[in-house]
Structure formats: structure tokens, C-alpha cells
Amino acid sequence: MLTPFPAALPIKVAIVEDERGTREMLATLLRGTPGFCCVAACESTEQALLEIPRAAPAVALVDLKLPGKSGAECIRALREKILSREQLLGKPQRTWFLVLTNFEDPENVFRAIQAGASGYLTKSTPPALILEAIRELHEGGAPMTPNIARRILHSLHEAPGTPAPGLLTTREREVLLLAGKGSTYQKIADNLGIAHGTVRKHFHNLYEKLHVHSLPEALRRAGIQ
Question: What is the pLDDT of residues 169-200, one digit of tens each?
Fold first, then answer.
């Protein structure tokens, strides 16, 4: 007699969403659909950091607009905590992050991707397509709302050779603008009310992001005259 193949395990999904109605709708959708299960439903980054590493979901749905720390900060912090837990326990725990939000601008998209998101959907996405995106992400894909993909492509084509929107932080760009006007590190520090060492750190970070080694290269790469 042939032994039947075991049924595929459901995809474990966690939710980070501060809007109660949306959070409960997503949890109900996951719990009521074969092949999926909801292992955590959090309303803030702080709660997510407590529950999600222990729940070990395969996919985490994260809104970008959260109370306190933003969704991008939540993703970054969760990745770090999951990695630390993974090293402590000595076993792999891979969690993929799928943004589900109302923001459609390229800056927020790039910020989320830089934080560690592998997919990006808007909240107008039908439930069936959300489930499809979760499965696609779990299988190694990178689901994205078509309109978001078009916006990103447009922003990249709009100014070839310039860094992607959101690549530099607001403060890094302020530092670079002041340097472009001839300000020394100390003058930049005095102008922005920060330490001289902090200015040096900002330059170190933006040089790495822009893949350059000098101020003229950084200004040119950032599109600053």
C-alpha cells in the first residue's frame, strides 16, 4: 500500500498593523484560508519585536505608518533581532517582509526595500491577490503592486545616473548640500547643531551609499551642482 504524501505545511504569517479593523480582517483571511495561518497580529513595532521573533513566521505583513517607530524601522529592527535569535539558537529562521500600506511614493518604497522588504503592496490590493503575493514571496518571488512598479521605473528613468529616491537620508543630503557650498566639517556641524564626529560619520555613510571616494564625486552622483 502506497504511503500518501504529507500535506504541505501552511505558510506562517505575522501581521504588523495599527488599524484594528485591517489587522483583524487580515488575521481572519489568513486563518480562514487553507495553506495559511496567522501566528501573530501586532499593532506596533514594540509589540512586533516581542512576538514575531518567537513566532518565527515565514512572511510578515508590515504597514509603514505605525505609532512610534515606522514600518521601515520595524522591518530593520526585526531583521536584526531575528538574526541575533538565529545565532543564539543555532538554527535558521528566515522571515520575508511584505509591505502592505497606503504609501505609493518611490521614497517610501525605496526606504522599505533598504530596510529589508522583499515585496510591496498597497492596501487597495484585493484579498485574493494579497494571499497570492504571500505565496509568491514565500517561494522566492518579489511581489509588487503594478502601479508601484511603474512609479519606481519612472523615477529611475527620470534622472539616470542619480541615486535612487530615498537612498540618502534628509540629514545626509543636508550635509552634502552644505559641503557643496564650501562649508568645512566644523561649519557644517555648527550650522546643523551636531558634533564634528557626526558630520564625519554622515560623510562615511553617504560615500558608501553613493560608491564614491571624494566630495566632487559625491556631489555629481547626487545631482548637486
Answer: 888 888 888 888 888 888 888 888 888 888 88
